[in-house]
Amino acid sequence: VSFKVRRDPWFRGREDALPSTAIVVKEPPPYGKRQGFKPRTPEDYGDGGAFPEIHFAQFPLGMGMGERKGKSEGQIALQYDADGKLRHDAIARIGHDKNKVVYTKLADMRAKVWDEEDEDIQRPDEETIAEQTEKTRLALEKITESKVDILSDC
Question: Which residues make Cβ contacts (< 8 Å) with residue 89, sequence separation at least 6?
Answer without folding.
Answer: 102, 104, 105
